[in-house]
Each structure stands twice: as structure tokens, then as C-alpha cells.
Amino acid sequence: MAGGGARPARSFAIVLIVHLAVLVLWQVAVDAFHVPKFILPSPLATVQTLGTASYAWGANTLVTAIEILGGFALGAVVGVALAVIFSWAPLVSLVLLPLFVTLNMIPKVALGPLFIVWFSYGILPNILIAFSICFFPILLTTARGLREVEPDLLDLVKSLRGSRWTLFRKIQLPGSLPYVFSGMKVGAILAVAGAIVGEFIASERGLGYLMIQVQSSLDTPAMVMAVVLLTLLGVALYGLVLALEHMFVVGDARQT
Q: How does the protein's chain sit in the membrane according to the entry (predicted)?
């Protein structure tokens, strides 16, 4: 038990040290070579922009976080639900899955102006763009996980006259959870990209909107700070998915 607890702590310490080393090297390189701030600001100059009240960092970060989390949550719910429907109704999968593949090939940047026309400006169209980008990997990986169940287990449940719900709850769902969380980890990354795509196209708030505003004045420190905050939002969402995976997959495996 002690060794198992020490290993994650050691891994986290290594990750933290590497990140801190990169920040130190960044600061030293900028200072040593006198790199202009508008080309590459130092970490200290980047953090100092948080004191600029006109940028409304808190409000803009909150808007982007809502868009990311909303798009990801919608993608996870719709993706998993459709995968379950496809596993229960192969005919529905045969009809709809190729359509979803075709729709997924549409560049999401091209959907942005259409979403603006249909839903106007605001958080909703950006949530939908994030959803449109992140839900497809969740759908595919979950559908694959529901299909790749041990045939012997399926035959056993059927021989015991188990219902479809029992088959799903006892066999398919637990077996597909690693696939579900694999798709959710990819979806978490894509949700961040989707929200920013929406804000770049047309928005009135958010970190992407702020980056567009400060670009004209070459306020590179503010742009870098926005990128850092976006990265932190993505890391937080990814960490949440990892925690859920550890709870439902790793935890169950240890209990069994």
C-alpha cells in the first residue's frame, strides 16, 4: 500500500519539477537574449497582466470554462447515449453511424458562421461548437467498447435468461468503461479547441475574444496569459476525467 501511494506522488513531483524547469529556462532565456516583450514575454511579464482590470480575467475565464464544460458534458451524454442505442439497435447504427461520420468531416470552423446565424452571439453557439468537435470520439470509442464484450459472458447471461438491461448493466457497461473514458479524455482536449474556435469566429466574451482584442495592440503578454489560462482549464477538465476513471475503473478493478 505504501509503495502504491508513493509512486503517484513521485510521478507528480517529477511532472511538477519538469514544468518549473521549463518556466525557469523560459525566464532566463528571455532575460539573457533581451527578447522584446511583444515577441516573447517572460513568465513574470505574463503573470503581471493579471493585474490589468480592464481585461476582466475572471469573467472571461468563467465564460470560456462554461463553454468548455458545457460542450464536453453535452458531448459525453449524447455520445454515450447514442453508443448504447447503436449497441441495442444494429439497424439504427447501420443507418445513422455513416451519417455521423460524414457530418464529422465538416470543418468545424465552417459551422461557426452558421451557428451564429441560427443561435446569435453568446455562450450557446460556442457550447454547440465544442460539442460538435468532442462528441464523435466519445461515440466511437464507447460503441467499440460495448461491442468488444467477451462472447462467453454474453452466452452465460443469455443462458441464465438475463434481460437486455441485465446484460447491459452487468456485462457491457463495466466492460466498456475503459473505452468510455478513453473517448472522454480525447473529448476533453477537443472541447477546449471547440470553445476557442467559436470565440475566435464571433463572440463578445471569453478568453478567445480577449485574445482577438489585445492582438491589435500587440499585447503579447496578455495573449500568452490567455493561452496559459486555457491550458489550465484543459488540464483541469482532463484531470477530472482521470479522477472519474480512477474512481470507476481502477477502483472497481482493485475491489475485484
A: Multi-pass membrane protein
User: How many Å apart are CA 141 and CA 183, to the nearest integer?
Assistant: 5
pLDDT class of 1 with cuts at 50, 70, 90: very low
- Catalogue the E-assigned strands of the chain: none
Question: If you count DSSP H runs as helices and E runs as strands, how many of each does the chain have, helices first?
Answer: 12, 0
Summarize pLDDT for 164-206 with one digit per residue, the tens. 677 777 777 888 899 999 999 999 999 999 999 888 887 888 9
Written as nine digits, the cell of 244 is 472519474
Say how far apart CA 69 and CA 64 lie, in whole Å: 9
Indicate if the pLDDT at residue 92 is higher than 70.
yes
Which cell goes with 253?
Answer: 478493478
State how far the Cα of 235 lies from the Cα of 42, in Å rounded to an integer: 22
Render 95-152 in DSSP notation, one character per residue.
HHHHHHHHHHTS-HHHHHHHHHHHH-SSHHHHHHHHHHHHHHHHHHHHHHHHH---HH
* Residues 216-227: b if buried by 16+ CB within 10 A, e if exposed: eeebbbbbbbbe
Cell of 60: 472571461
C-alpha cell at 193: 479547441
| SS3 at position 17 | helix
